[in-house]
Design a protein that fits this description.
This protein has 660 residues and is an alpha/beta fold. Helices cover 25% and strands 19% of the residues. It has 4 domains: 29 residues; 138 residues, Immunoglobulin-like, CATH 2.60.40.710; 364 residues, TIM Barrel (Alpha-Beta Barrel), CATH 3.20.20; 61 residues, Type 1 dockerin domain (Orthogonal Bundle), CATH 1.10.1330.10. The N terminus is likely disordered.
């Protein structure tokens, strides 16, 4: 008996050991995905017809008939149907029926957008489908309660070519929760894995901006305004253009940074939990924004930039909405403390996301001559001293995220030698564009605890905006340089004090002098490799126009011809190239397209081999799945990806072949 127990114990140990090893190597099935399909009940099928009038529509309309040739009667209450789709937006969804032979009260739906499908079920009142019979037509209408649009082009179960009822296996049918018809759709594509949080931060060395690896980089971006206005509370133009397409267009044109004007007021509303609605959003153009608040849309924008390689610079355009013409960063409604609180909240929200790399502390502080309501630049502790205020705000921001670039604009007026802000006047003051006068840096530079994070910034415009003294006589690039650019700000670059970013420049091409100025500044930016963000993407900037024409979809090619030579056209992300991941960029094993290889890819590969799905979320999924290079996707590839995840191999056989 003792010997038998010993053998039995040894057998148990060996059995357990085999089970552990098998689990690690994935030989033993861990879930239903590793089992073969239940085919005990055959003969049930779905016939489908598309009832939508367009691929972008306010509802999904799968018209279906369930056929029963199983040899027995089937209670409809035991059946469930899944329709696979990708949900756009956050609005709740519901089921309606145009016509059903069994009565609309006997059909219900549950929506699982996180899993990629809607599940349609039936009550006991739906009755029985006799052998050889069918359910009759069920004209299902799956919609959002907001009547927002769906983009059905990426929906697995949508096929507009089915204009009459026919067998269809891209919807699945379950009998007592077992799959009896159709091929399950792939799960929704995962959001890309963010790049390492400490990889893309930038710093300053002299007048250069460097990345974390010491490479010199150039910020060449564009503005998209609207979040700073009460009329929009978000980007203008979303009723005419698609947000993702517009951001991708910017990236593909070579803009690597988006300057987003914003106000302290809207940030404080978000901080208080107020739901702020964005105007001018068409769910036909932007189905993914359906139901989103203005803050949701801002988060969505930042998240999308992870995919296209662009970075973000926030610009506090005013204390309150539409207050960008105010001289100062505070007013009767928003105090200096409020202004700082807004910056702290915004910084905290994105502190772990190196998509947001810079903060432009205040747009265009200005005001001429003397008085308590002008923005001045000196060594005083007066509340309207912008230099002092910028240092205070910057330290609060850096205390939360020490990795950010701090962008400080100038003022409008600076006293000539022998004068100060108490006695300067029209003929004793150097004046420039709002925020464009940095003469004070020579005597009173910004002092930060992290000097390698400081970037100075100015705005420069042409005679269409205002006929400055240097425009009142014939001008060219040399006169502009001598009379405006060098004494007001370029000396900072020339003397290797700090980098310079021209935060706004732009204008219309109707008048010859304005065109001449724009071409001169464009040439200067190109020659000196200056950082800049063009004003603006928006065509609705009344005095400057924008990069886009009035339809918000067509580039002003004449204007872009002036801008293009100024663009660096390289991304600031070490993982995602500017413009996003193209069809040529992929990793073997990465079948979901997030540039990472993990259990999600393993699950998808298993489902594909078991024929539960026929495609992968990534357009390169089929290529990425063939890990041994034999031209097939099978259990060998599953084993390889398991071994890679368990770190028993570091490279796939197909990659070894390419290295040889």
């Amino acid at each position: 008996m003792g010997q038998k127990r010993s053998k039995k114990s040894l057998l148990s140990v060996l059995t357990i050991s085999v089970m552990v090893i098998s689990c690690l190597l994935g030989i033993i099935a861990a879930n239903a995905d590793d089992t073969t399909e239940n085919t005990a009940l055959e003969g049930l099928s779905i016939h489908y017809m598309d009832g939508s009038l367009d691929e972008r529509y306010q509802s999904m309309r799968p018209y279906i008939i369930i056929y029963n040739n199983s040899g027995e009667s089937i209670d409809m209450a035991d059946l469930k149907v899944r329709y696979y789709y990708t949900k756009e937006g956050v609005t709740e969804e519901t089921l309606l029926c145009f016509y059903t032979a069994i009565g609309s009260d006997n059909i219900f739906a549950e929506f699982y957008p996180e899993l990629g499908y809607a599940e349609i079920g039936f009550t006991n009142g739906a009755g029985v489908i006799e052998d050889g019979g069918n359910s009759g037509q069920m004209q299902l209408v799956l919609k959002k309660i907001s009547n927002g649009y769906y983009d059905q082009t990426n929906d697995y179960s949508y096929d507009p070519s089915f204009t009459d009822y026919a067998e269809y296996d891209k919807m699945t049918l379950y009998y007592e929760d077992m799959l009896v018809w159709g091929i399950e759709g792939p799960p929704p594509p995962l959001e890309p894995t963010p790049p390492p949080n400490d990889d893309d931060w930038l710093h300053v060395e002299g007048n250069l901006i460097k990345d974390s690896k010491g490479n010199t980089v150039y910020l060449t971006g564009i503005n998209w305004f609207g979040f700073e206005t009460d009329g929009a509370n978000g980007f203008y133009g979303l009723n005419k253009c698609n947000l993702e397409d517009s951001l991708d267009l910017m990236a593909n044109l070579g803009f690597n940074l988006l300057r987003i004007p914003i106000s302290a007021e809207i940030i404080l509303e978000w901080k208080s939990g107020t739901y702020v609605e964005t105007s001018f959003v068409s769910t036909y153009e932007n189905p993914r924004l359906d139901g989103m608040s203005s803050l949701d849309i801002l988060d969505y924008t930042v998240n999308h930039m992870k995919k296209n390689g662009m970075k973000v610079m926030f610009d506090m355009h005013g204390a309150t909405k539409d207050s960008y013409q105010d001289n100062l960063w505070y007013n009767k409604d928003v105090t200096m403390e409020d202004f700082i609180d807004a910056w702290k909240w915004l910084t905290e929200r994105y502190k772990d996301d190196d998509t947001v790399i810079a903060m432009d502390l205040k747009n265009e502080p200005h005001g001429k001559f003397s008085g308590p309501n002008i923005a001045k630049w000196d060594d005083s502790e007066d509340p309207n001293n912008w230099k002092r205020a910028a240092e205070i705000i910057a330290e609060e921001v850096l205390a939360i995220n020490p990795n950010l670039l701090i962008v400080v604009e100038g003022v409008e007026a600076y006293p000539m030698d022998g004068y100060d802000y108490t006695n300067c006047g029209e003929f004793t003051t150097y004046c420039n564009w709002w925020g464009g006068n940095l003469r004070g840096v020579a005597h009173h530079p910004i002092t930060l605890s992290a000097p390698d994070k400081l970037v100075y910034s100015v705005h420069d415009y042409g005679p269409d905006i205002y006929v400055q003294p240097w425009f009142k006589k014939p001008f060219d690039i040399n006169t502009l340089y001598e009379e405006c650019w060098y004494p007001n700000w370029y000396y900072i670059v020339d003397q290797n004090i700090a980098p310079m970013l021209i935060g706004e420049w732009g204008g219309k091409l109707i008048n010859d002098d304005n065109r001449k100025w724009l071409e001169c500044l464009g040439s200067f930016i190109e020659e000196k490799k200056l950082h800049h963000t063009f004003w603006a993407f928006n065509p609705n900037s009344a005095d400057t126009g924008g990069l886009m024409l009035e339809d918000w979809k067509t580039v002003d090619e004449e204007k872009y011809a002036i801008i293009e030579p100024t663009l660096w056209k390289n991304g600031l992300d070490h993982v995602i190239p500017l413009g996003g991941i193209t069809s040529e960029i992929f990793k073997y094993g990465d079948v979901d397209g997030d540039l990472d290889i993990n259990s999600c890819d393993l699950t998808l590969l298993k489902r594909y081999v078991l024929r539960k799905i026929t495609e992968f979320p990534s357009p390169n999924g089929l290529k990425a799945a063939d890990l041994d290079g034999d031209g097939e996707i099978n259990s060998n590839d599953i084993t390889l990806i398991k071994r890679y995840i368990l770190r028993t191999i570091r490279i796939f056989p197909i990659e070894e072949e390419s290295e040889e």
